[in-house]
Amino acid sequence: QQQVKQSPQSLIVQKGGISIINCAYENTAFDYFPWYQQFPGKGPALLIAIRPDVSEKKEGRFTISFNKSAKQFSLHIMDSQPGDSATYFCAAKLSGGSNYKLTFGKGTLLTVNP
Amino acid sequence: NAGVTQTPKFQVLKTGQSMTLQCAQDMNHEYMSWYRQDPGMGLRLIHYSVGAGITDQGEVPNGYNVSRSTTEDFPLRLLSAAPSQTSVYFCASSYSGELFFGEGSRLTVL
User: Fold this and answer.
1) Does the distance separating the beta carbons of B40 and A9 come in below 8 Å?
2) pLDDT in tens, A25-82
3) Phi–psi pair at B5, nearest 5 degrees
4) CA–CA separation, A22 and A52 (whole Å)
5) Could A9 and B98 be called an inter-chain contact, meaning their C-beta atoms sit closer than 8 Å?
6) Phi and psi dihedrals of A55, rounded to 5?
């Protein structure tokens, strides 16, 4: 049972364009929604995260939009650069305690052409 | 400050062999976990630990054992390797929700 569904599987964007990656979840007990960025040969690293009490969070060129009623959240990369080419994973965490286990989406391979 | 260190980075095993993937963190994080990454499957949780002496199963625990005798170390053991365990394995630790990942261990089982 996949609890976090991510789309698209791959995405090609021209330099300067907007990259949009979408995720949907089913479990309303999730209370933390991070996005991780992974470069080839490296481990994933936290990019940006949001909690369900806000609808949007922006850090530089990266923005998370969150729709609690639709149980969806998305990552927007403005002015996409070739250096943004990587695999992006959305994730979700159940509320409560010190258990930080994340459920990940299947990932999106982003290619930004120069 | 090394963060999360995984060894080995690459390993080739024959079916039925056993091995241990090592993971060490120097951030004094209580939470540690192991994920496997397969093409098109994302990151799937194998086992996790919320502190020394406490471990629990994740989404795909079969064929793997873990133990947590110290805060720093969280080894992952394959008792009898199978080709289905060919994957890239990531160890991660956390204090406040953000997972810090190692650089991965690529395992091939022939």
Assistant:
1) yes
2) 999 889 899 999 999 999 999 999 999 899 999 999 999 999 999 999 999 999 999 9
3) -115, 125
4) 16
5) no
6) -100, -15
Tens digits of residue pLDDT in B9-54:
999 999 999 999 999 999 999 999 999 999 888 999 999 999 999 9
Long-range CB pairs of B43-47 (<8 Å, 24+ gap) are B43/A44, B43/A89, B43/A102, B43/A104, B43/A107, B43/B90, B44/A104, B45/A101, B45/A102, B45/A103, B46/B76, B46/B89, B47/B76
Which residue of chain B comes nearest to A7, CA vs CA? B40
CA–CA separation, B26 and B16 (whole Å): 33
Give residue for tokens 């939470």.
B31
Which of A43, A49, A104 is opposite residue B103, by nearest beta carbon?
A43
A contact test, residue of B45, B99, B103, B105 with most A CBs within 10 A: B99
CB spacing of A43 vs B102 below 8 angstroms: yes
Closest CA to A61 of A74, A47, A76, A46: A76
